[in-house]
Amino acid sequence: MPAQYSLHPHIMLLSNLTQFSPMLYLTGFPGLETIEHWIFIFFFLMYLVAISGNCFILIIIKANPRLHTPMYYLLSFLAFTDLGLSVSTLPTTMGLFWFKSHGIYFGACQIQMFCIHSFSFMESSVLLVMSFDRFVDICYPLRYSVIITSQRVVRVGLIVILRGPVALIPIVLLLKAFPYCGARVLSHSFCLHQEVIHLACTDTTFNNLYGLSLVVFTVMLDLVLIALSYGVILHTVSRLASKEERLRAFQTCTSHLCAVLVFFVPMMGLSLIHRFGKHAPPAYHLLMANVYLFVPPMLNPIIYSIKTKEIRYVISKLLS
């Protein structure tokens, strides 16, 4: 058991279970148990903004035929993945902070980690496709309507969205075969693969290498390709004749660029802390994990509602 956690009656009980026990123990914020109801309110408000905001984006795009274009289909993909990411963590987080429900069956933990990592990989893929959309729009504007069609966007979007979940299946299923000893305490209110795998008392080299390869060839590759696309975009924008044209061209990318930063910066921070910060204070792990999972789904609908002219127009019509 990590030294930073004090013994809890539930932890003592779980530590005496056999290696075939299906239970794990979730934790919230050590030392802040007396204000967990206030923490619940804070998380509840974030969930409310994230779920209602992304549902609002999906409903607006569905209800307005003028938004049935490739760019807004991609935005609906992004809203769907953000919605899935929020719903994936909601049961255990709300149960922990409101009902003091710490235990989770191993099977439920597997399902939750599969959903969390799947929707994370999906979001990375959607942001990559969106960067290609911006690349074609700015670098090849006259050919945009030929290259980027609604049917092609939906087809490509489904392919890249499914690659993460399909690749995740082996390492998530393999977790069931490992023996687990000790207290089996997780340091978050939800299950992550990189944390559960550390509880196994056997050789987990395959899972570690497979998980690292999966991150490198999905998320990191997506990030590199996004950076390359923006490099070409910046080069193209810098060659435009007037300052107004350069500003107008770059403004079409600001929403997507904000979404990329909001998603990838916390993800990279969390990955680095889990792999290289084993002796870092637990507060760092908790902060990065919660920022990574809760902030992007909450901020993305706000960013696109503020920065996208067509969505602002629809909102103004609804409010008038």
UniProtKB/TrEMBL annotation:
Annotated localization: Cell membrane; Membrane
Keyword Lipoprotein: no
Protein's membrane topology: Multi-pass membrane protein
Transmembrane domains' residue ranges: 12-32, 38-61, 73-99, 111-132, 153-175, 214-237, 257-277, 283-303
Gene Ontology MF, one: G protein-coupled receptor activity
Pfam families associated with the record: 7tm_4 (PF13853)
One of the record's GO cellular component terms: plasma membrane
InterPro entries hit by this protein: GPCR_Rhodpsn, GPCR_Rhodpsn_7TM, Olfact_rcpt, OR51/52/56-like
SUPFAM superfamilies registered for this protein in UniProt: Family A G protein-coupled receptor-like
Biological-process GO terms, alphabetical: cellular response to lipid
Classification via CDD domains: 7tmA_OR51-like (cd15222)
Assigned keywords, A-Z: Cell membrane, G-protein coupled receptor, Membrane, Olfaction, Receptor, Sensory transduction, Transducer, Transmembrane, Transmembrane helix
Domain G-protein coupled receptors family 1 profile: residue ranges: 53-304
Function of the molecule: Putative odorant or sperm cell receptor.
PANTHER family the record matches: OLFACTORY RECEPTOR 51M1, OLFACTORY RECEPTOR 56B1-RELATED
Name this protein carries in UniProt: Olfactory receptor
Organism: Muntiacus muntjak
